[in-house]
User: Which sequence fits this backbone?
């Protein structure tokens, strides 16, 4: 069924206190070709990589003014196929009250997300998916890179060709099986969706 609130893609957005800090993390993702798992806000300390199944068109307006929307994400990220992540082991989060965490079998507890709307705790808008992993290796052919503007995409292509960026990759951070001169990522710019993104 086709619905504008559903997507066959999953999005991992970059967090940061500022565009500068988020973009630095984002550049690390492109340089290493992987997303590193974290345990922040995951009960039980499980290391996971998190995604959202909310369509980009729905998320993009919140990304335009993150402070006004009360979100921690910035306009940088990657988008992958839901089927691809499912095949890697990714699954939807389980939204439930905190007291129900112990009811889950141990192998499913990494998927628990606290949901108590009667107490003002409701992150269900994120429509989160999680994969329990130290890292998720991205395939550039199957990954779309999200940037705020076309200028960002052009600048990244130039940086890729720059000697300092290539040197960084050559010392072992780069794990993509591609020649150094090839720029493997393709982009979607939020401005192409009609979203004016603050760069502060």
Assistant:
């Amino acid at each position: 069924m086709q619905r504008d609130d559903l997507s066959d893609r999953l999005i991992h957005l970059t967090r940061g206190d500022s565009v500068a800090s988020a973009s630095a993390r984002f550049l690390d993702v492109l340089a290493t070709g992987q997303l590193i798992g974290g345990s922040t806000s995951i009960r039980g300390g499980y290391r996971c990589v998190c995604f959202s199944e909310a369509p980009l068109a729905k998320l993009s307006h919140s990304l335009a003014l993150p402070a006004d929307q009360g979100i921690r994400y910035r306009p940088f990220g990657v988008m992958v196929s839901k089927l691809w992540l499912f095949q890697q082991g990714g699954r939807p989060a389980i939204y439930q009250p905190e007291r129900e965490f112990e009811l889950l079998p141990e192998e499913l507890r990494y998927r628990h997300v606290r949901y108590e709307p009667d107490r003002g705790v409701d992150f269900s808008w994120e429509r989160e998916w999680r994969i329990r992993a130290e890292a998720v290796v991205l395939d550039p052919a199957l990954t779309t890179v999200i940037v705020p503007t076309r200028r960002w995409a052009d600048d990244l292509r130039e940086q890729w060709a720059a000697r300092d960026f290539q040197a960084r990759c050559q010392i072992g951070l780069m794990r993509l099986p591609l020649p150094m001169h090839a720029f493997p990522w393709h982009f979607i710019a939020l401005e192409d969706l009609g979203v004016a993104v603050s760069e502060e």
The chain has one domain: 9-94+124-193. Residues 19-32 form the longest helix (14 residues). Residues 9-94+124-193 form one domain.
